[in-house]
């Protein structure tokens, strides 16, 4: 079983924190400026996430991004602002149907089913919503993220936060030269295998314009780099597995 959590990111004044408390337990907060990220373990049902965000509508002064991650298998992404809910994305929609929460997410976020035209309209709405964030995302970039199946659900959620310029929960990548985002925990599904990444010698991550692998024993520079494309990511995963098998 992988990670299950709710992450809420945006301008989150302290007066909102108690309103968000029903979303889970033991919230952790990252970010020192006006933009903050809160992560809750043992999260509430995604329906509760939507209910809380809709109830906060009148208090939201800037865009807020909320994500629900289930066992690192699928994710539900909700974009809201002062005018209410603006966009919903489903990541790894085909995996969502295996869960009760996922079935609700599919009905809510992709009523026409995986692979249908919902992706294009959702990507367009999400891109328009992101215009007020530190780093807006293009419609094409959003569409590229939701169209593919991700081996680890955490990866795409952290990538969305990174590209929007919002604080990342958890891993700090500063010790790994050139890394903006690292994935050093959870389980990687690869060719029918479950590979534990926690404490593994080699770490996969993203730089400014590349996908990289870092050796914990010599993290100053990436040991391997690949283009930041779908093909590059797949090649990086294959190389990571190769290195882990031989280490």
Protein described:
By secondary structure, the chain is an alpha+beta fold. It has two domains: 145 residues, no CATH class; 66 residues, no CATH class. 32% of the residues lie in helices and 27% in strands. It contains eight helices and twelve strands. The strands form three sheets. A six-stranded antiparallel beta sheet has the order 2-3-1-4-5-6, with helices on both faces. Strands 7-10-11-12 form a four-stranded antiparallel beta sheet, covered by helices on one side. It has a two-stranded antiparallel sheet with strand order 8-9. Helix 5 packs across helix 6. The longest helix is centred in the C-terminal third of the chain and has 17 residues. The two termini are 24 Å apart. The model has no long low-confidence stretch (mean pLDDT 82).
How are the elements arranged and paired?
Blueprint: E1 5-10, H1 14-20, E2 25-30, E3 36-41, H2 46-55, E4 64-70, E5 74-81, E6 84-91, H3 93-96, H4 100-109, H5 118-129, H6 139-146, H7 153-164, E7 181-183, E8 187-190, E9 193-196, E10 202-206, E11 210-215, E12 224-227, H8 230-246
Antiparallel strand pairs: 1-3, 1-4, 2-3, 4-5, 5-6, 7-10, 8-9, 10-11, 11-12
Helix pairs in contact: 5-6
């Amino acid at each position: 079983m992988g990670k299950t959590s709710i992450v809420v990111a945006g301008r989150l004044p302290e007066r909102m924190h108690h309103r968000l408390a029903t979303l889970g337990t033991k919230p952790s907060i990252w970010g020192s400026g006006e933009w903050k990220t809160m992560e809750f373990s043992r999260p509430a049902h995604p329906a509760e996430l939507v209910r809380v965000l809709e109830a906060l509508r009148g208090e939201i002064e800037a865009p807020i991004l909320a994500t629900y991650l289930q066992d690192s298998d699928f994710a539900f992404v909700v974009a809201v602002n002062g005018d209410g809910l603006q966009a919903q994305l489903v990541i790894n929609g085909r995996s969502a149907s295996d869960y009760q929460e996922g079935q609700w997410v599919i009905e809510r976020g992709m009523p026409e089913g995986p692979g249908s035209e919902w992706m294009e309209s959702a990507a367009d709405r999400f891109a328009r919503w992101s215009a007020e964030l530190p780093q807006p995302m293009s419609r094409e970039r959003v569409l590229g993220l939701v169209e593919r199946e991700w081996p680890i659900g955490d990866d795409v959620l952290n990538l969305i936060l990174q590209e929007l310029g919002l604080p990342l929960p958890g891993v700090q990548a500063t010790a790994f030269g050139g890394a903006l985002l690292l994935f050093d925990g959870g389980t990687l599904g690869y060719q029918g295998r479950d590979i534990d990444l926690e404490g593994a010698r080699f770490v996969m991550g993203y730089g400014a314009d590349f996908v990289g692998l870092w050796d914990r024993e010599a993290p100053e520079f990436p040991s391997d780099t690949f283009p930041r494309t779908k093909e590059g990511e797949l090649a990086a995963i294959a190389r990571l597995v190769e290195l882990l098998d031989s280490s």
